[in-house]
Write a structure and sequence with these properties.
By secondary structure, the chain is an alpha+beta fold. It has two domains: 5-68 and 181-341, 3-Layer(aba) Sandwich (Aminopeptidase), CATH 3.40.630.10; 70-165, Elongation Factor Tu (Ef-tu), domain 3, CATH 2.40.30. It is built from nine helices and 18 strands. Strands 1, 2, 3, 12, 13, 14, 15, 16 and 17 form a nine-stranded mixed beta sheet that branches. Strands 5-4-9-6-7-8 form a six-stranded antiparallel beta sheet. Strands 10-11-18 form a three-stranded antiparallel beta sheet. β6 (99-103) and β7 (109-116) form a beta hairpin. It is globular, with a radius of gyration of 21 Å.
């Protein structure tokens, strides 16, 4: 595994679903620097990186998504604060007191903070604790001298502007990666490292490989279009979710047996487990009752594919997330060994 500079860079580049152009360009350049790959884009902006194999038959396509959670301006309040619209599925309490950046259509950006409208205990007393955290009560305090909707509009801030969450990215000496948006930028990094292994070791895979970098996964339609036609196996690489009742771990890769949309392909699951066992790759098998992936989107769109879901454990998903280099490495190793194993 190369150093984590690339992962850190994309984690710190804001990319909520619908506003991914900047980070996608950084990802494109990084893959392009490897050489030996073909890069194409779908009309709606997803990227397909292709590494040619000995045959174009029975291609495997891996997928990870670069889009993340975020916010948009829903309303400019009379007091100069902003009501928000959630991009993706998460709880408002996970972004309470978070620093944000408002991105305007002119390109100008303004900083702010996501707060409850009864945040101060000195003013609101017990209401500061009991007030619900939802779209009606959460607001953005802008770091500008604004006291009315007109003041805000003069800044060029409008309904529909994106609001970026501060990623707070940190790499610890103990091997942890702490950041928002590890879902799923950690796995974009896993795919990059997989491609790098084959290119830098001058290894030609038996079957042509595609790496689908999705840009609308968090809103449900990332892989509904654009998967190469010759694909027979679709390996989604997305975060695993440790927690009570789960087997997933930050220090392992996980093979997901089923999520909220139902079971993943049994034959693929069993093959991936066998590969882990034969190669001593730390792994777990898990089920997620409140989870969907680009694999689910592809199948719902009518693709005739065998689909599997794997990925490193990411603690506190859709909040202040954390994973470990061991889980990242295990996921990279599983991708590589799966490719080498495919007949």
């Amino acid at each position: 595994m190369e150093n984590l500079d690339f992962l850190k860079e994309i984690l710190m580049t804001s990319s909520p679903s619908g506003d991914t152009k900047v980070v996608m360009e950084k990802v494109r350049k990084k893959f392009e620097e490897l050489g030996k790959v073909e890069i194409n884009f779908t009309n709606k902006g997803a990227m397909v990186v292709t590494l040619r194999g000995e045959t174009d038959e029975k291609q495997s396509t891996f997928a990870a998504h670069v889009d993340t959670l975020g916010l948009m301006v829903k309303e400019i309040k009379p007091n100069g604060r902003l009501k928000t619209f959630l991009v993706g599925g998460y709880a408002y309490n996970s972004v309470e007191n978070e620093y944000v950046t408002i991105s305007t259509m002119s390109g100008k950006k303004y900083t702010g903070t996501c707060l409850n409208d009864k945040q101060s205990v000195h003013v609101y007393g017990p209401e500061a604790k009991s007030n619900e955290r939802n779209a009606k009560t959460m607001e953005i305090r802008i770091d500008e001298k604004v006291e009315s909707a007109e003041d805000v509009e003069k800044l060029g801030i409008n309904v529909g502007d994106f609001i970026y969450l501060d990623s707070r990215t940190q790499l610890t000496e103990s091997g942890f990666v702490k950041s928002r948006h590890l879902d799923d930028k950690a796995c974009v990094y896993v795919l990059y490292e997989t491609v790098r292994y084959f290119v830098e070791n001058n290894i030609t895979p038996k079957h042509t490989l595609n790496f689908f970098i999705s840009n609308y996964e968090e809103v449900g339609h990332g892989a509904c279009y654009g998967i190469p036609e010759e694909t027979d196996e679709f390996i989604v690489v997305d975060m695993a979710a440790p927690g009570d009742g789960q087997t997933s771990s930050e220090f392992k890769t996980t093979i997901c047996a089923a999520d909220s949309t139902g079971p993943y392909d049994l034959e693929l699951k069993e093959r991936l487990v066998r590969i882990c066992e034969e190669n001593n790759i730390p792994h777990a098998v898990d089920i997620y009752p409140f989870y969907g992936s680009d694999g689910s989107a592809a199948l719902a769109a009518g693709y005739n594919l065998r689909v599997a879901l794997i990925g490193p454990g990411v603690d506190a998903s859709h909040a202040m997330e954390r994973t470990h280099q061991e889980g990242l490495q295990a996921s990279i190793d599983l991708c590589i060994k799966y490719i080498e194993d495919k007949k």
